[in-house]
Amino acid sequence: MQKTRAKRAKGGADDAEARPRGDIIEGATGPWEVVIGMEVHAQVTSRAKLFSGASTAFGGPPNAHVSLVDAAMPGMLPVINAECVRQAVRTGLGLKAKINLTSVFARKNYFYPDLPQGYQISQYDQPIVGEGEVILDMKDGSTVRVGIERLHLEQDAGKSLHDQHPDYSYVDLNRSGVALMEIVSKPDLRSAEEARAYVTKLRTIMRYLGTCDGNMEQGSLRADINISVRRPGEPLGTRCEVKNVNSIRFIGQAIAYEAQRQVDILEDGGEIEQETRLFDPKSGKTRSMRSKEEAHDYRYFPDPDLLPLELDQAFVDALAAELPELPDEKKARFMSAYGLSAYDAGVLVASRRTADYFEAAVTAPMPLPTGGGEAPGKGKKEKKTGSKTGAKAGGKGKGKAKSAGAGGAKRDAKVVANWVMGDLSMHANAAGCAIADLGIAPERLAGLVDLMAAGTISGKIAKDVLQIMVEEGGDPAEIVKARGLEQMSDTGALEAIVEEIIAANPKQVEQVKTKPKTLGWFVGQVMKATQGKANPGLVNQLLRDRLEVGEG
Amino acid sequence: MADSSDLTRLTIAEARDALRKGDLSARTLAEAHIAAIEAANGALNAFVLPTPEKALAMADAADERLAKARRGRGKGRAKAVDGALGALEGIPIAVKDLFATRAVRTTACSHILDGFVPPYESTVTQNLWDAGAVLLGKLNNDEFAMGSSNETSHFGPVVNPWRREGSDEALVPGGSSGGSAAAVAARLCPGAMATDTGGSIRQPAAFTGTVGLKPTYGRCSRWGIVAFASSLDQAGPIARTVRDAAILLGAMAGHDPKDTTSADVPVPDYEAELGRGIEGLKVGVPKEYRAPGMSAEIEALWRRGIAWLEEAGAEVREVSLPHTRYALPAYYIVAPAEASSNLARYDGVRYGLRVPGSDIVSMYENTRAEGFGAEVKRRVLIGTYVLSAGYYDAYYLKAQRVRTLIKRDFDAAFERVDVLLTPTTPGPAFGIGEKVGDPIAMYLNDIFTVTVNMAGLPGLSVPAGLSGDGLPLGLQLIGKPFDEATVLRAGQVLETAAGPLPEPEAWWTGSPPKGAAGRKRASGRRKSPARGKGARGAKASPKRKASP
To answer: B387 at the A interface (CB within 8 A)?
Structure first.
């Protein structure tokens, strides 16, 4: 499979006239374009199920979270959970989608032991959320607009357990009736990478909104993939739906396998049969689950137990007004307010908590000037402005480019971003946790950055201090002080060391006159002699002056 | 109050007043009915599960509350104490087996719910117990309420207490609430809970000379009632008088947050609304109900009804409900469609009958093949068919459109009139087995009643006379949404004008009670003057063998 990345046409579902983007499979008979649409099932974050008061907690012994309604006892009736409706509307708003003020719950009828009612309550021709969009930021800096077809609410099924008894299957109804949002995209995706980016972005948006925890291992987020191939510019081919793709990594595998399978069939003169296929994570392959002929006739009809769901515009407006800042907006703000690159801003906003952490670190107040005097803004009283609280209170706040530092002193947001994306990210990966859970308060990262900016410690020492902060906790300034890690900037003391080294190494002194680049060796010696605490800039300068080596 | 046959003759209103006065204990009243059930049920098969022990325990509890109230009243706190008593304190009631009753077997008279004992109580029955009522037992009905003769019950048919004059032939009590209607008619209980999806309260009430009320859709909660067709099902009472139906409805009705389709509207004091007369009431007579082939007997009954209402001061006018003829076919699409889905839960997995199979599919097939009777299967098949891909628009969707048109017909009529008067059924009760082989003939029983369910309106059947061969016939009043009060008020006028029907001869006990007629019947009444316009007095002489 050969990948070519053409220029992306913005806003293009049907970008037939443009050069096709995405995964192009070069077959013997010519190139094939891969067309992908996704159906994502996202578990609604809510305490109770969609139509019953039973708990949605994950885990718990089998059938511990089952109400009479969930078990479909005779005469039981569903009552819509208002919180799930709110969450669906909020998600719709986050997808910039049309909210349908009237929607209808319908029954999808089929028999299965883990479906107690013999039907799933879902939404059919009148979903709660209509068309919307998701913008993907691709690694090459391009953006892809993916249309959202609809979002609807539906019940999850229970779980059949086949390994408990040699002859019988068991049923666990804990998940039965849990609220899901099915989010259907338009066939706007053109590559495995885009599909992965789409699910990742969708998950990020829902995590920002707090409407789905996005946990794929626990099944809170599941993706079915519709895949077809076609000659570039031609109408859509016959699609196959691939189910059971339970991680973002598998999405790529499933698409790669399935697209190639379809191309192989077509190149051999065969036809694609519309069918549902199952992804096997062990082999990385898909296999047929049921053909179109075997497809269920679900006999959808409006659920007579539930009245049409009527929302008023004021309800929707109120939810819209309370919506948090979403990743796209936050990214744009980080770029404009903090001068970050699109890439850096994109990386930071991928997790709301990381973005919040970054912002809290950038906007943390600068320390009060100490008597010792390396702190910036010496002589000026720090003023506590509202910027820190402002940034914390609302992601929506416009944020400030500058920290609340004393008298206009500014913490370099780019430096903070590099620390968050670099060393902190590394420590978090090592610890297997989120950056925000490393136990380092953003104010302390800010303190570390400030110590560096003030020249109190070098960058190298700063990394060591961070290591200590991760392992033992503590305030960076105190760590530096307690361990004597302050940078040596005392010219007199450094001059003495420089003289000692020059005296002891005449050969090198000769050499540096012809080879100025060997000056670095002297710097290294000074650093060694000072246990890395010497101010490298100052050492450089002193050596150049003393050895008469020119700049650069 | 020694003769228990007298006690089973009391109306709910009479019994209530006697209980409050202390002239009667709830236990005595329950015992009288328990005895009547024991004597009759072998012949009538109205009860599928009598609950005598539970009845006595509940009666004793009611007696305690009544005694406490009387003590309080003695201390001059009459109002507060009476207020604390439920509207049905000590009144024995029987319940159609469609209502879930906690710790009491509930099967919908289907084999598939064999031995099912719900750990919950339906909202409607809970309302009754909260009002102080006493459970006598569970009543027979057509399986899953699907039938018009009570012949589809897994427990066998109910026999109508009424027989044709000079005939021993067993007749159906109508259905699906055949057990409820038969039990009330045979004085096994003074009132019963029933449900009505297409006529299941009103048709059996008409067949048994009882009063049956189907309330507005949404008036009573459906929570805990085994569902047949969710958009049509509604619980209602069957009783021997309009006043009793009013009392029962008042206790049953009310908004229930557990049923989204139950209406959050106030429940009036229906009993207090009675007896206000119908001077100036506008009564519509829908011309489309004068179906070709209507028997002269029914037509005459209808005319009599019109005359009675006019005599009472109502203005009668003809109205048109043009889409009436499509109602029955549309009903037999909508109701089976919903039923096919509602009955999917009976799969042998979690409760009720399970017939093993080699795998899950064969277990489903075996269980449902054995668990459902022929009529239920017929409707599940019809329902599955009309919802299938390719047929949905032609059947289900079209039926729903017809339903909208029927509703509009009524809306237009109710702009001109307050209530409609029609016959309840095309004829009187028929013989057991007579129509089982012809589903269409059976379905035609509901021709005058299904429209009311399709439009979600309240409908009341009042006994209005006897057929040529001595069987009861009913007239139906149809009201505006949530205007049961007017329907009941007009119904009481019909009831009064028609005069009391004779009682069916109590052939079912082997030895019909002798000489009880008129002996003690009036005593309770004298102590508690009727609240109505004296018409109640005539009706309360139930033993008189009145001639039609």
So the answer is: yes
- In sign, the C-alpha dihedral spanning B318, B320, B325, B328 is negative
Q: Do A40 and A157 belong together in one domain?
A: yes
Query: Does A356 share its domain with A407?
Result: yes
Residue B515: pLDDT above 60? no
Question: What are the pLDDT digits (tens) for A247-264?
Answer: 999 999 999 999 999 999
Domain range for A8: 2-315
pLDDT digits (tens, 9 = 90+) for A326-341: 999 999 999 999 999 9
**d(C-alpha A459, C-alpha B430), whole Å:** 100
Q: What pLDDT is recorded for position B154?
A: 98
How far, rounded to the nearest angstrom, does the alpha carbon of residue B350 sit from its chain's CA centroid?
A: 31
CA distance B162 to chain A (A): 33
Q: How many structural domains comprise chain A?
A: 3
B101 token code pair: 């009753």
Q: Which of B253, B184, B198, B179 is nearest to B222 (CA)?
A: B253
Q: Are residues A125 and A195 in the same domain?
A: yes
Nearest to B267, CA basis, from B248, B241, B239: B248
Residues A390, A311 contacting (CB under 8 angstroms): no
Residue B250: band (very low, low, confident or very high) from pLDDT cuts 50, 70, 90: very high
Kindly state whether residue A552 falls inside one of the protein's structural domains. no
Residue A117 and residue B113: Cβ atoms within 8 Å?
A: no
Alpha-carbon span A308 to B222, nearest angstrom: 18
- The Cα B459–Cα A444 span in angstroms is 75
Q: How many domains does chain B have?
A: 1
Other Cβ atoms within 10 Å of A2 Cβ, number? 8
Nearest to B443 by CA among B226, B202, B175: B175
Domain termination site, one of A286, A315, A344: A315
pLDDT tens profile A11-40? 444 444 455 788 889 988 899 999 999 999
Residue that finishes a domain, picked among A261, A282, A315:
A315
Shortest distance, CA B144 to any CA of chain A (angstroms): 11
User: Do the Cβ atoms of A335 and A363 come closer than 8 Å?
Assistant: no
* B257 contact A CB<8A: yes
Say whether both A529 and A442 belong to one domain.
Answer: no
Give the C-alpha separation, A132 to A206, whole Å. Answer: 14
Contacts of A372 (CB under 8 A, 6+ apart): none
- The answer to whether residues A500 and A534 touch, using CB atoms and an 8 Å cutoff, is no
Are A18 and A104 members of one domain? yes
Scan residues 416-455 of A and list those with Cβ closer than 8 Å to B.
Answer: none
- Distance from B414 to chain A by nearest Cα, in Å? 24
CATH number where B253 lies? 3.90.1300.10
The predicted pLDDT at position A370 comes to 52
Domain assignment present for residue A452? The answer is yes
CATH number for the domain spanning A502: value is: 1.10.10.410
* Distance separating the N- and C-terminal Cα atoms of chain A: 48
What positions of B carry a catalytic annotation?
A: 96, 176, 200
Structure-block tokens of residue B418: 């307050």
Please give the residue range of the domain that contains residue B459.
4-325+401-539
Question: A71 — contact with chain B (CB < 8 Å)?
Answer: yes
Residues A86-124: pLDDT tens digits? 999 999 999 999 999 999 999 999 999 999 999 999 999
Of residues B226, B260, B337, nearest to A75 (C-beta):
B226
Q: How far apart are CA B92 and CA B8, in angstroms?
A: 10
Q: Which residues contact B317 (CB under 8 A, 6 or more apart)?
A: B282, B283, B284, B285, B416, B417
| Residue B395 in domain | no
Residue B180 corresponds to which tokens in the numbers above? Answer: 């409820």
Contact A76 B224 (CB under 8 A): yes
Q: Give the A:B interface size as CB pairs under 8 Å.
A: 97
Q: Is residue B148 assigned to a domain? A: yes
User: Residue B341: which of A76, A109, A297 has the nearest Cβ?
Assistant: A109
